[in-house]
Amino acid sequence: MSQPREQWGTRLGFVLAAAGSAIGLGAVWRLPYVAGTSGGGAFFLIFIAFTLILGTALLIAEFVVGRRTQKPPVPAYKTIAPNTPWFFNGIMGMICAILILSFYSVVGGWIIIYFVRSLGGLASGGTDYEALFGSIISNPWEVGIAHLAFMLITILVVQGGVRKGIERTTNWMMPALFILFIVIVIRSLTLEGAGEGIAFFLQPDFSAVTGTTILFALGQAFFSLSLGNSVMATYSSYLPKEKSLINSAFSIVVLTIIISLLSGLAIFPGVFAFDIPPDAGPNLIFIVLPAVFEQLALGSLFFTLFMLLLVFATLTSAFSLLEIIVSSVSYKRPDSRGRTAWIVGILIFILGIPSNLSYGLLSDWLIFGNTFFDSIDILTSNFLLPLGALIVSLFLPLKMKKADLRDEVMRGSAMGNGLFLVWFTVIRYIAPVAIIIVFINSLIGLFTGA
Predict the structure, then answer these.
(1) Which residues form a coiled coil (predicted)?
(2) End-to-end C-alpha distance for the chain, whole angstroms
(3) Burial label, 403 (beta-carbon count in 10 A; 0-12, 13-18, 19+)
(4) CA–CA distance, 280 with 302 (Å, rounded to integer)
């Protein structure tokens, strides 16, 4: 007899774990640097619109796939649409998760390095943080060891299951991270020159909007909500049938937008106050935040605590990415979960080595003008994630009866039928068209250089 499938202990545990999949780095690390290179306020406004309209609808759609079947993505698609090729979207989601974790774990290693260095008073003053960051990421031994350490921690937690590892950690780490973010934002807003950074982040300049800006905003919405790579389908497969998908999705979206807003308010005032170019790229969090903490009373201590919490928040995201593959591979043989986690985790570590060396030994190895690290980021965030979301939006209206969809979406919710009709309209008509238009714009930009 097979073992019963594990479930989340509470809806709050599920919401925090799912939100943690985004809050770890999707909002804290990636959004500020993508906004900085894509128009600031205009980008952020478009990102919010995509997140609220398309993100919420697609989040619920992935929830339906997972909770209805109580299975990992590949067998879930096969259950809903047997003897059809739709299950390839589950396979693509697994591939996408592998690629994202391969470079995501590199950033996790950078955060571990900063945490260890913060124990020695990194943010105590007198440090050239830009030069420090450059020296760290170009050191193959230091980043290599940290990258390995990050993956080993991820493997150790995922091999033990969902409830005791991920849920237990996120139940207190996410609220703590939120509180510390408030502290950083308050101090960041009081820096001299902060107003210019606030204007850049919140005042939209639509003259700077291009097809690339829209593409990046859509990609960020999918990245921040972990859409298109089957993370949410996997997590929702552990969700009890009586829990409301609508309430859970709304809670996750709101938390994601709030943290994204706080992230921008924490970083961009410091960017302008310390005269750092807003398009400096993914190193913003490693240059600006230490400088901001340096201005705080007991700043070195607060920076150490923040980096510790960011390590755990980053790991929470990594857990969800590794969980997709492990749960799928070990689905029919739960006793192989530990062995699967180690094999898959080590292979992903090896795959991440070129990304790890992209700013050092392989800095001259460019793919269409981008480092290997940036190329994997662009491929997954701007193409594979939207493609996966597009397939989900097409799949449900075609392969599930409308009455069955209504039953699954509205179960556990006291909201009226009108809300379901809005969701169904977005999924069946608006989401596919919007994603296809963005793809066309991206192709035009690719060939015209716009």
Answers:
(1) none
(2) 58
(3) exposed
(4) 24
> How many angstroms separate the CA atoms of 173 and 156, rounded?
18
Tens of pLDDT, residues 184-238: 888 888 888 888 888 888 888 888 777 777 877 887 787 778 788 888 888 888 8
Amino acid at 158: V
Instruction: Tell me the per-residue pLDDT of 237-260, one tens digit each, with 9 for 90 and over.
Output: 888 787 788 888 888 898 888 888
Containing structural domain, residue 392: 11-448
Q: What is the pTM of this model?
A: 0.83
CB atoms within 10 A of CB 131: 10
Are 127 and 135 spatial neighbours (Cβ–Cβ below 8 Å)? no
Look at residue 237 and give its three-state secondary structure: coil
Residue type, 20: G
Q: What's the rounded Cα separation, in Å, for the pair 342 and 59?
A: 29
Name the CA dihedral angle for 4, 230, 401, 252, rounded to a multiple of 10 degrees.
90
Q: What is the DSSP annotation of 81-93?
A: STTSGGGHHHHHH
The answer as to whether 6 is a domain residue is: no
- Is 232 contained in some domain? yes
2 falls within a domain: no
Q: What is the CA radius of gyration of the chain?
A: 21
For residue range 372-382, list pLDDT tens digits in order. Answer: 888 888 788 77
Q: How far apart are CA 273 and CA 295, in angstroms?
A: 12
3-state SS, residue 111: helix
Contact 86, 374 (CB under 8 A): no
363 CB-side CA count, 13 A? 8
Long-range contacts of 120-124 (CB under 8 A, 24+ apart): 121/300, 122/290, 122/300, 122/303, 123/290, 123/291, 123/293, 123/294, 123/299, 123/300, 123/303, 124/294, 124/299, 124/300
Cβ proximity of 290 and 129 under 8 Å: yes
Q: Name the DSSP class of 367.
A: E
- Asked whether residue 1 is domain-assigned, the answer is no
Structural domains of the chain, count: 1
